[in-house]
Amino acid sequence: MRPIRPARPAPRGRSARRRSAPLLSAVGLVAALALTATACGPTEDGAAGTPTNAATGPAGGSADGKITIPDDLKDRLKEHGIDLDKWKGGEWKNWNKDDWLREAEDFVNPIIAGLWDPDRMKDAEKPPKQPVANDISGDAGVTDPVPARLPARAAKSPYHSTAPEAGRLLFDSPEGSMACSATVVKDPQHPGKSNLVWTAGHCVHAGAKGGWFRNIAFVPSYNDQAKPVSKTTPREQVAPYGVWWAKAALTSDQWIAQGGPTGGAGAPYDFAVLSVTPETAGGKSLEETVGSALPVEFNAPAVPQIVSMQATGYPAAPPFDGERMFQCADKPGRLAIKPAQPTMYRVGCTMTAGSSGGGWVAQGADGRPALVSNTSIGPVSAGWLAGPRLGTEAKAIYDKAGKK
């Protein structure tokens, strides 16, 4: 599969610059009126849906498919000192490579209450277009044999009792609404009150040929009871612990510079950390709300010393539907994309797109469970997944995220 991403995506390891409240409000208002509805769920690498123009009501679309903003709305915003046509040259509404907001300081993700309703969450499930090849090793002398195909097993519900830190990550891309997986992790700078979420870089930023995705939101214990989801499903069923919006996102410089639809040279650095805030203010942190957060283990033991790693995610490409949590536990092997790059972990697992970004857990240095990697890439049919080994680059963005 390609990077089992949103199943697709990833961001740069620099801190996001704060935006003024008026700007956020304005962008949020515009976004609410002119949305690009899309859906994507990570296949064994990443999946993307078909773009849909969802600009309705007062905000419409031009003949060439671009979003247009009503003149009366523009005038009202200008009364508050906000001219959207001049902000970043209007780049906020563009997805093309030249204008797509790429840099850390460009990250803008205003809360749009109610945007992610059960129906839209369910639609974020599409298979990948460009699967990863079964054999992508760039260094046969380092890469271990392809692991045996290991069927993913359904996690026991309620998921909050099985993996309370796990959840689903939703976002909009040029190709539609997409879905990845993510994990609540501890924040040493705010003990017991973490608002940090770990995922794959390709789930928040498109890499070398794109920029930041929009409307990024995390849903812990998504569909906790593993029940069928439809248009009439109550939001409380699919989001029992609320919807948490990314207010800051960080990923590696390597992913932004080298990442691609199938991972590419950026795959060994395909990780990201989000600082989130609740859609509905409640006073409690994410960690307090879900009751748990995993520590992150950097520079985990070498492959021969690891007995087992467990990958968790919400696979969305067939034969899965993105509505249920699955897991795989296997002894990892090594995968080298290029000789000069860090090796990746690789395990046998049949999870598909949508599982991208999901946490890999192993025994930490203190003997307790810790997050040691995340799902990044995998072929559609071979039955394996690969994730980055977390080192100094990952530690740097993790530390910065805690300061947000």
UniProtKB/TrEMBL annotation:
Q: Where is the composition biased (Low complexity)?
A: 46-57
* Lineage: superkingdom: Bacteria
> Which controlled-vocabulary keywords does the entry list?
Signal
Keyword Electron transport on this protein?
Answer: no
Check the record and name the InterPro entries matching this protein.
Glutamyl_endopeptidase (IPR050966), Peptidase_S1_PA (IPR009003), Peptidase_S1_PA_chymotrypsin (IPR043504)
Q: Spell out the SUPFAM superfamilies in the cross-references.
A: Trypsin-like serine proteases
Region (Disordered) spans which residues?
46-68
Q: Does the keyword Metal-binding apply?
A: no
Q: Which residues form the signal peptide?
A: 1-39
Put simply, this protein is called: V8-like Glu-specific endopeptidase
Organism per entry? Streptomyces candidus
